[in-house]
Amino acid sequence: MYTADKKLIDNVKSLEDEVFPVSEFLTEHPETGGNEKESCAYITEFLKKHGYQVESPYCGLEYSFRAWKETGREKKIAVMCEYDALPEIGHACGHSISCGISLLTALALEKTFPDFPYQIELVGTPGEETIGGKCVLTENGGFDRYEFAIMGHIDNVNAPQMRNLACNDMFITFHGKSSHASSAPWKGRNALNAAELLMHGIALLRGQFKPFMQVHGVVAEGGSAPNVVPDTASLDYYTRAADLTELEELRGWIKRLAAGIADGIGVTCEIEQRYPTFAELYYNPPAIRAIKETFEALGEDVVEFEPPGGSTDAGNVDMVIPAFHLQIKGVNAGTEMHTKEFEACMHGETGKATLLRGAKVIASYIARLAYEPGLFDAIKKSHDEYREKQRQAGENNFEGEE
Fold first, then answer.
1. Model confidence over 359-397: pLDDT tens digits?
2. Residue 188 phi/psi, 5° resolution?
3. Which of 276, 308, 341 is the last residue before a domain boundary?
4. What is the rounded average pLDDT for all residues in the chain?
5. CATH of the domain at 218
6. DSSP conformational letter for 50
7. Within 10 A of 349 (CB to CB), how many other CB atoms are there?
8. Around 300, how many Cα atoms within 13 Å sit in the side-chain half-sphere?
9. Which pLDDT score is estimated for 306?
10. Is 335 within 8 Å of 341 (Cβ atoms)?
């Protein structure tokens, strides 16, 4: 049975007051994805004061960073930091506290284990809520140097990992021909009719969806005036599935359906993917068991997510190396992410308690990966076997739609 390292836990507690002001700053100064200028500067200045070398931007992504202390150790690990906020409701996804957890984790491990076998590096990953910054960093080789990557995400329960879905977007535009809707409707080609048929067609397709396949979205454009036959109509959709292979399958169904409708209505159709594809996180059995044990050893209640839902760019990191994405309880059960109630819990003593809880668990788990014989080897073996099966789907980036 695993027992937490008392010295490590004590060091997490001793450094808490030093780190929490970073989380407080982020909470009080929320910046949305692509705009994290002050957030990135504040975090990197904090790290420089603690002796870290900083590269920013990292791998060509604005407001990203890599921070490290040169140890000469060949093996390196990445502790990821998120710090983007949401429009209007600020850090209602908890990134301000999550970032603090990563900083506190790295400092506590460094203080506790002078001979730590890995060089611990902090990687700032902006734009999780928008462009998927980790997708960009992964594509540019930003995680190739590491053995594994890890972070915590705030939630209403403690869990080893959220069960995530692979995800991408489809911006579907039908082009027809405008005409007067009363005096000469037969001269037009109604793009909105095509969009309506596609929406109904997708609804009917749901009867043959595989488990966890999802399609949801909105009408982005539907015409300009009631008395004009719409010559353009656009649908903004997200597609999700259990893994990349099934996501590609789902996307193929929609493409064929859209093409058939366009042909039948007499319009044209184009499909654009505007954001990176998010891969699924592998729910790695030996990792899940070890993380659960770590929570329990620290006196924390822990659950497992069922069924899967939501998506994250951390899945793209997991395509390259094992990526651990622990869920840390920071709000009461029933309080959901992306709400004002959730954001309120990122402040004050509640936020500080979450910072402490998350850093204790994640630091302890990293120490286990470093020192517990055979644990990381088993996790990596399971990860590599799973990803090998997904490699072909992962190499298809879903661009070049017909």
1. 999 999 999 999 999 999 999 999 999 998 777 654 654
2. -95, 170
3. 276
4. 95
5. 3.30.70.360
6. T
7. 7
8. 28
9. 82
10. yes
